[in-house]
Sequence to fold (290 residues):
Amino acid sequence: MTEMADRSTRAELGAFLKARRAELTPAAVGLADDGTLRRVPGLRREEVARLASISVDYYSRIEQGRLQASATVLGALARALRLDAGQQTYLYELAGRPTGRRIRRGPQRVRPSTHRLLDQLDRSPAMVLGRYNDILAWNAAATALYLDFAQLSPHERNYTRLLFLHPKFRDLHVEWETAARVSAATLRLETAGNPDDARLADLAGELSVRSPEFRQWWGGRIVSSASYGTKHFQHPVAGPLTLECDTWASPDAPDKRLMVLTAEPGSPSAEALQILTSWSADDTSTQSAP
Fold:
């Protein structure tokens, strides 16, 4: 990493720490509020330093990007700021002390066996997401639920971009804000290990310009590694759908994930999903990005 990139990364780490302490109150971390007026929301620097058992000056220099923190101090800060697993990963990556192996930035390809798996999930919408939340492959059920990804340009075929910029994709999600915040947060997680990635910078820049919501959440340094949850859809044909979403990391590359949506057996959503996917049963082959 160049000296300029190193300074930029330290500055981002400081901004991330500042954003996290702004979210916490003294009561949330077991501190008594002294009753004095707070110029900024959340915890003060001295309160974070006290919780992490380090000096205020030491913490200030970390937050100002003037000092590289040790692994021990990072662990103390993670505990003090109540960071979840995804936030801790982001913190360690920014500090140049990743907890796992870094992602190799090779070509994004989907293995034939994964295509076969998608084919067999003919009643469950499924897709493979790659770096930047690019949609690399999908099955007919995913097309029936979302839209025909094959009709989109490679530039448009990105899950986060569709959530923020595609009106029909956005309207499909009943709890759009929750889905969009999580998608932006998973994208933010990528920036820690790849601060100089031009494609990632271009995507974040475009979304920041065109979406005020993305700009706000991106600036808040929200990160997430969520791998499961419940999604609520309002489909124009099938009506309301409540589906469980699960994602798994690809065995051949940590930056590829298989996302599968399923409905509880016997539920109205299961019946509606079965009807919806049956209409596309004549085209069960998977497709992938060129």
